[in-house]
Amino acid sequence: MSDKFFLDTNILVYAHDSEDIDKQRRSQELVEKALRSGDGLISPQVLSEYYVTVTKKIQTPLSEDVAKREINVLSDLCRIDLDATLVRKALDLKARWKLSYWDALILSAAERGSCTILYSEDLSHGQKIENILVQNPFKT
Fold first, then answer.
1. For 133, phi and psi rounded to 5 degrees?
2. Structural domain tally of the chain?
């Protein structure tokens, strides 16, 4: 069985942002792998950030209808509940690892999902936080 992995918001956004074709292709590969294998996870935070970013912040925003269809597809990866326990864990991670709250919440969700890999370009590539290895999929 493959290792479970968590996709940060930026991976989902790049899959729909044609500004950098290499990042778009790599991100699409990871999203497809997550959907196909069942080993990839996201959280409600990621789903929410994704929606706001692709409808308002990328160079060519998605329409509301297209974004809603994408949310429906990506919802299959959203198997982590956001609750008070997850927030408390994020606060512990924030303090212990000197992270932003939002990055700590991502890591808390990844840990809850038993993920061993976090794909993100926001944290240090190769860093191990708790039992999660941070990998920037765009590093060569």
1. -90, 125
2. 1
Query: CATH number, domain at 110?
Result: 3.40.50.1010
pLDDT tens across the length of the chain (140 residues): 569 999 999 999 999 888 899 999 999 999 999 999 999 999 999 999 999 999 999 888 999 999 999 999 999 999 999 999 999 999 999 999 999 999 999 999 999 999 999 999 999 999 999 999 999 999 97
| Alpha-helical runs (H) found in 6-117 | 9-14, 21-37, 44-56, 64-74, 84-97, 101-112
Residues 6+ apart with CB under 8 A from 39: 1, 2, 3, 4, 5, 33
Q: Which long-range contacts (CB under 8 A, 24 or more apart) does 126-133 make?
A: 129/93, 129/97, 129/99, 130/93, 132/6, 132/107
Rounded-to-integer distance, Cα 45 and Cα 139, Å: 25
Count Cβ atoms below 10 Å from residue 110 Cβ, excluding itself.
Answer: 29
15 part of a folded domain: yes
